[in-house]
Structure formats: structure tokens, C-alpha cells
Amino acid sequence: MVALKTERKVLLLQSEKGVVPDAASSTDHHTLESLLKIIETRYKTGSFCVELLADGSLPGADSCKFVKASTIDKVTTGVIYIADMNLDTTTQKCQFLFARADASVSNPAFVKADGNKVRIVTPDKGEAVGFSAHMTLDYSSTAKQVHGQRTVLEKTANLSRSLIFEYLNAMLTRHSRDNGFEYELKGKQKGKNPEKRPYRLSLTAMSKPSASLKEDIKKGNVSMIELIDNEYEFVGIDKNDKVKKVSRVVKLSVDFPKKSKGLLDFLNKTSRKAKDENFDEIVVRIRNLPGGTSSSPRFNVELEDAAEMLYSKIEILEGFKDPLEQCYTTFCKPISDKIDGKLSDNSVWK
Predict the structure, then answer these.
(1) What is the pTM of this model?
(2) Average pLDDT score over residue span 25-52
(3) Lower CB density within 10 Å: C or N end of the chain?
């Protein structure tokens, strides 16, 4: 996904504070604002850069090393960090600008047709191809949604929602561990000291429902349905199991035409069959959507009705006076202002 000079796509999310495991929720009294202040404190210290693994993923939360930018002499794989942040407790909005230096991306090339010339721009010491993404979280009472607070995230290549929130949660995990957060385990025998276990703070982001799968099926063609069986790895009592690898993938090639009445019934039956056969997820490949685009919504087979499966709502920011750049060091006000417009536009959050 190439950054365009004339527009930006943004994801509409719903963010909320949580704890892991859930059993600690009655013990913990942090608010969403206090979580943002924890992140702000780390940002102000300057130790907020994390070097990524060779595959571009974040190290495990317990092994993440937050370092100052001045200590990074060479970007061997990649680095993610907060380039700019503003927490306004009066308006109850928190703005982020995330940046990623990615050493795995090819150097930028400029082509000149006259003479068939290509100019490659090579990075200086400590540099790598850069990407940035704006995000604003509105935690005021007027911005409350069903699953959390209104959040708008710029959709950027190599800075996915999952990577950004894993990065923020790594900060919260480090803070929880360093401050020894514990909760008492319920249900133990009387006369014994209650067992205490560690817990961590978390920041979750759910997709704002967009059109249902049914609506996209009316506009495009479903070309394939994939059944996925994940092998999970246990990483600790106080953490969510993570996917170790995909152990099985079954691809069902189909060609349902637009507005097919039989597809949703077929998809529901497939979902139930997949659950019986111990598959975990289903991916639906939809092509020929408006503008020549495609979509690949993924959902858990535990959902009772696949036809009601919803996925991320994407809005387009356009009408910029000046050309946009691929990467910023500080907030781009035109982008931030248009994000604020989406946050306050009730029609896009219905």
C-alpha cells in the first residue's frame, strides 16, 4: 500500500482499557486516561524505541527493550517508536504519531523516462525507509461506543494496527511488571493466605463495524473460502496464548456471482462444519469490489452466524491543499484536523 499525496485511509476503532487476566479486573482501578499517562511518561523519558525482529514483528512483551534513539547506530531489521504525542486532559483526546524505520524495504527509486534513467536513494548511517501513522483516541463521554472509545488510526504500510497496539501494550506490560501489579486468586480454602498472581494492564482496539459480509457480497464475487487451523503456544497463565504456526489450511475454490442468495447459507454451513472439524478461523476472499479492490475478512468459527460477521470500517480523508508525505517527524496538522473531523462525525459511527 503506497502512501498517496492526495488522500489517506483511516480505520475507525473502539479502544478501551483492560487487564490480563480478566480475574484482576476487580482489583485494578486504572482508567483509560491513566494508561495513556503511563505511555506519555515513557515517551517523555525518551526510552521508547524498540528494535523489531527479522520478520518485522515485535519481540515478546517481556523481552522488549525500550531504548533511546541516540543508542541506535544502525537499523539492521527495523525500529518502531512514538515520533510525537500529545495528551490533552482538557479535551480528553490523545494524539499519537507512530514511526517505523524498515530496513527490509527496498531503497526508494526515481525514474526518468528520458534516457531510461533510474536514481536509487541509499540511506545514510542509522537510516532506513520510513513510515508514519497518525492516531487519535477520544476518551470523552461523548465519544463512548459499544466496545470502547472512538479511535481513528491512519492506515499505513508496515505500521499495522496489530503492531502498534502490541507496541503500546509492551509498554503497559513493562510498567505492570516493574510496579509489581498483583491480584488475589479467589476460591482458596479458608485459613490459608490468599494466593497472589501478577497481572498486566492492556489497551485493546476493536474494529468499528462496517458493512456486513452480506453487503460486500452484493458488490463483488467470492472466489475462495479458506479454513484455518492454528497451533497455539502457551506463554503463561497471565497472558493470552499466541499462534505458534498455522498447522492446516483448506482452500475451497468457489465462484458465487454477485447478489448470490445461496452463498450466505453455504458460508454458514461451512462455518459449522469447520467448527466440527476443529478449524479455528475462516477467511473469505472477495474480489471485483468497486474500484477494482478486494477484501479478505477473517472471522472465528465460533460466531453463530457468518452472515453477520463484520470487519473494519475504513474512511478516506481527502481534499488536502498541499501534497502529503510518506513519513512525518511531527504531527501533520491537515491530517490530524481531518481525523478530528471523523471523530466528531456521528454519522460514520452509527
Answers:
(1) 0.74
(2) 95
(3) C
Confidence grade of residue 305 (pLDDT, cut at 50, 70, 90): very low
In degrees, to the nearest 5, what angle opens at C-alpha 238 toward C-alphas 245 and 280? 35
Buried b (16+ CB within 10 A) or exposed e, 301-330: beeeebeebbbbbebebeebeeebeebbee
As a residue count, the chain comes to: 350
Q: CA-CA distance, 305 to 275, in Å (whole number)? A: 12
d(CA 311, CA 208): 7
CA dist 49 and 200 (Å) reads 21
Confidence bin at 287 (pLDDT 50/70/90): confident
Distance CA 65, CA 83 (A): 17
Alpha-carbon torsion, ordered 89, 200, 55, 1, to 10 deg: -30
Q: Which residues contact 193 (CB under 8 A, 6 or more apart)?
A: none
Domain ranges in the chain are 1-207+318-350, 210-311
Per-residue pLDDT averaged across 151-169, rounded?
A: 92
Cα distances (Å, whole numbers) of residue 250 to 107, 263, 281, 302, 348:
37, 18, 11, 18, 36
Question: Is residue 65 within 8 Å of 51, Cβ to Cβ?
Answer: yes
| Neighbouring C-alpha atoms within 13 Å toward the C-beta of 49 | 16
